[in-house]
């Protein structure tokens, strides 16, 4: 069991490092002053990042589709294969908005701390999106202030 946890943590770290490296490479390839995706002097070719290591998605839905769906799948039903990616659809753990915020910010069981690459508002938005979609019907909204307190 410990070996699996170590391997999952290593894979998650590599994935987060890969996302950051990709953003940096795309930013470096961008012509000087082009600003990409409407951001002055920063970003990447397709607008995924404002700066290397900072996502640009303006809504929780777009953040989920760009970042979270890669592991949790577009239908949030999760996957198993090289790792175990839990389902978020109908997940009773999401009853606590604070729990979801904590997991996005700090990571858990091999999930990288992707919240480091998001603003407080982006974390709140993606958590609220997941908690109100995919069969989840949690009505209490997470705020950027709550995220800031956990961060």
Keywords:
single chain, 151 residues, mainly alpha, two-stranded antiparallel ribbon, two-stranded antiparallel sheet, 5 helices
Structure notes:
There is one protein chain. The chain has 151 residues and is mainly alpha-helical. 46% of the residues lie in helices and 6% in strands. It contains five helices and four strands. The strands form two sheets. A two-stranded antiparallel sheet has the order 1-2. A two-stranded antiparallel sheet has the order 3-4. A hairpin with a 2-residue loop joins β1 and β2. The radius of gyration is 16 Å and the shape is globular. The two termini are 29 Å apart. About 24% of the residues have low confidence.
Short structural description:
The chain has 151 residues and is mainly alpha-helical. Helix 3 crosses helix 4 and helix 4 crosses helix 5.
Percent of residues in β-strands: 5-15%
Number of strands: 4
Mean pLDDT: 77
Distance between the termini: 29 Å
Spatial order of strands in the largest sheet: 1-2
Shape: globular
| Helix and strand element order | HEEHEEHHH
Tell me about the largest β-sheet: 2 strands, antiparallel
- The helical percent reads 40-55%
Give the C-alpha Rg.
Answer: 16 Å
| Number of contiguous helices | 5
Structural class: mainly alpha
**Low-confidence runs (pLDDT<50, min 5 residues)?**
5-11, 17-45
């Amino acid at each position: 069991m410990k070996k699996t946890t170590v391997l999952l943590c290593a894979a998650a770290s590599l994935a987060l490092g890969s996302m950051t490296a990709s953003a940096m490479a795309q930013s470096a390839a961008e012509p000087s002053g082009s600003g990409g995706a409407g951001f002055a002097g920063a970003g990447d070719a397709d607008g995924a990042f404002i700066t290397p290591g900072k996502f640009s998605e303006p809504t929780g839905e777009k953040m989920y589709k760009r970042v979270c769906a890669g592991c949790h799948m577009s239908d949030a039903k999760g996957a198993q294969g090289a790792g175990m990616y839990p389902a978020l659809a109908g997940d009773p753990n999401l009853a606590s908005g604070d729990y979801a915020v904590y997991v996005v910010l700090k990571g858990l069981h091999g999930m990288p701390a992707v919240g480091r690459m998001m603003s407080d508002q982006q974390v709140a938005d993606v958590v609220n999106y997941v908690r109100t979609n995919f069969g989840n019907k949690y009505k209490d909204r997470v705020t950027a202030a709550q995220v800031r307190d956990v961060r």
